[in-house]
Design brief:
Tumour Suppressor Smad4; 2 domains
């Protein structure tokens, strides 16, 4: 279904952002399509706008986001509950969430105007931090929740439970709880498996575990995961999608579960996830 109102958001620090924003605004104007531009993005081309990303989430049918995966993650967090379909235009080199490269901007305009894109509904992860039984912090992530040791070079000890049953005690540099979307991010770098977007699972991956038999564990996304620092463990840190840092103290509990919302991520029709993997990871099938 063609979008009636389109929101445009760009990573303003990327080279070529300004010229591409101007070009896209002109292309949508030629097609008599209404466009709202986020404040900083509008500033790139000398326009005044008071529209925040959160505002665009409330008014627009689809958001065209220019940048990389990090830009899309930042936009998602700024949207809060006002999640709208996102079509990503890649201004960098590697991007699993972006649909097209910047040179294909005309195809992006065509897809949006004609409504010819398809939506991949991506699982989101709700993370709640409890301290003395009360909610200390709540976060929502598309990629992952990472518990890490901070600046000190030491192992941290974390107890993991699945639906109330003890899984194991991790003695590692940290722990990654990833969605299928995030399985190609930090979790993959730490040795975790690649999950298809519709796999219906989460993956728990330790970072440099002291016990070599501690490997990634795949868990149903219908399960509730609990992570707690072990007794005697010092302060550790939580980040969700690499955003705001939350300090976790001994006695705190992290509860992670599938969110009731998802992210409708726009993709080109007929594009299989396996094709994306081959392209992004440069899998040629050859021995070299």
């Amino acid at each position: 279904m063609p979008a009636k109102l389109i929101g445009l958001i760009a990573h303003t620090g990327k080279p070529g952002s300004a010229s591409l924003v101007k070009t896209l605004a002109d292309e949508f104007a030629k097609k008599s399509v209404s466009l709202e531009i986020e404040t900083r993005t509008a500033g790139l081309i000398g326009l005044d706008s008071s529209r925040t990303t959160y505002d665009l989430g409330g008014s627009c049918d689809i958001l065209l986001v220019m940048g990389g995966d990090g830009t899309i993650l930042s936009v998602l967090h700024d949207l809060g509950e006002r999640i709208k379909p996102i079509l990503g235009l890649n201004l960098g080199s590697l991007g699993f969430l972006t649909c097209l490269s910047s040179v294909d901007y005309l195809k992006a305009v065509e897809c949006i105007v004609e409504g010819s894109y398809t939506l991949s509904h991506r699982t989101l992860l709700d993370v709640t931090v409890l301290r003395a039984g009360k909610i200390l912090a709540q976060r929502r992530g598309l990629n992952d929740a990472v518990i890490s040791r901070g600046e000190l070079s030491r192992l941290i000890k974390l107890q993991a439970r699945i639906d109330g049953a003890v899984l194991t005690e991790y003695n590692a540099d940290g722990l990654i709880i990833s969605t299928p979307t995030g399985s190609t991010a930090y979790s993959l770098s730490a040795g975790g498996p690649i999950l298809t977007p519709d796999s219906g699972v989460f993956v728990i991956t330790p970072i440099c575990p002291h016990v070599l038999t501690n490997r990634s564990v795949i868990v149903s996304d219908r399960s509730e995961i609990e992570i707690s620092p072990c007794l005697g463990q010092g302060v550790v840190f939580l980040t969700v999608d690499g955003q705001e840092l939350v300090t976790i103290e001994p006695g705190d509990t992290l509860r992670l579960r599938k969110s009731s919302q998802n992210l409708p991520l726009a993709t080109l029709p007929g594009t299989a996830f396996s094709e994306v993997l081959c392209q992004k990871l440069k899998w040629s099938g050859s021995a070299v």
